[in-house]
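Troubleshooting: if your tokenizer reports a length mismatch, compare against these two reference records.
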Amino acid sequence: MTSLWRGVFSLAAFLVALATVGSLVKLAVADAPLRIMALGDSITAGVGAGGSASTEGGYRGALGTMLSHNGISAEFVGTRRDYSAAIPNREHDGWPGYVLRSFPADPGPGQLYGALTRNALTREKPDVILLMAGTNDLIRLTHHVPGYTMPNVLESMNLLLGEIFSLEPDVRVIVAPVVASPIISTSDLAAFNSGLAPIVASYAIHGAHITLATAMADAVPRDSIHFPDTIHPSGGDGYGDVARAWLAALEQAGGQQPVPIAAKQ
């Protein structure tokens, strides 16, 4: 079988699988593009090194191109359009500096949990949410800021997910571990990323459409080439690596039942 026909059959199988899992069915419908909300912090926004402005949308521009090249009709939705001037689909909900949940000692510019997410979901009605957040919480944990303990940061993710599903019970959520930003210790990264699995499983086992993009944890090499400011994967092809991990997670979600294997263990 030629590589061309293998690609055709692979895509066909992917689309058939997607048609079996609720909100992702729209991937196979040409006149109803999948509404994807990218929710997170500055890495979701696509910020460059040192907080510099960018125009490519970080991983969102690359992911949009990958989806299009695979014949998948999708559009990004959200309440912001910045960091995206060079790409056609600019909407997102990436909030630079924001934490999952604020604590008084260092609340930062804001939190995802609460009014921000409620407003975004009510306004945009996404089919799929790509959620990667927690880097700013973990930076505060690294600096021993009161309130930002590992149990609290993980509970912040739990609260955010609970809020999402209370507003949109049928939405598909793909949760990603945070990328390996060198500013955060490997032990803290491992503790947070491994702590996401039982949270995701707890929602999945009760029927929520949720999966974990496990490959994101190691998607971007942890070095100064890919993380020139030690936070954002804006060097090398860092944002491209993030996009490829999201694409793989979307493919995996399309082929899974709502309750992943991890939830059954």
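Reference record two:
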Amino acid sequence: MNFSVHSLDTAPEAAKETLAGAKKAYGFLPNLLAVMAEAPALLKSYVALVDLFDQTSLNVSERQVVLLTTSYENGCDYCVAAHSVIAGLQKVPHDVVDAIRHGRPIADRKLEALRREVCEQAVDAREAPSRFWEALDEAEDERAEAQPAKSR
């Protein structure tokens, strides 16, 4: 599947203002946002979600631990690379980024506790679909057992 990587000139009109804001904030236009520009509602939703995440009680380093760990646990090399760059721009300590990139514990105990929690949540998220289908199968079986046999 091929995706267009838009610039401010090629993006749909409805995405241009959001892309311009991102370029101003980052100093460059991230490829992820340039691709999302093809669907302006997606782009705006993603940027709004990032803005909301930035408003949480987590500090910059903690937010990047969440994002980098999630990327690492999901096996998204592109995401790990992108968030590593962003973490560097946001002055997250190099040893924190390096530990996450290599699946090692973080020396800072608080950040390590956060990393472990995110790892557990990522495992739960990966297992959730199979648990859903298992529960659905069980419910179907119970429903079938509860229905009286039809006379022929």
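Descriptive notes for reference record two:
- The helical segments are 13-26, 31-36, 40-54, 60-73, 77-89, 94-101, 109-146.
- The first helix runs from residue 13 to 26.
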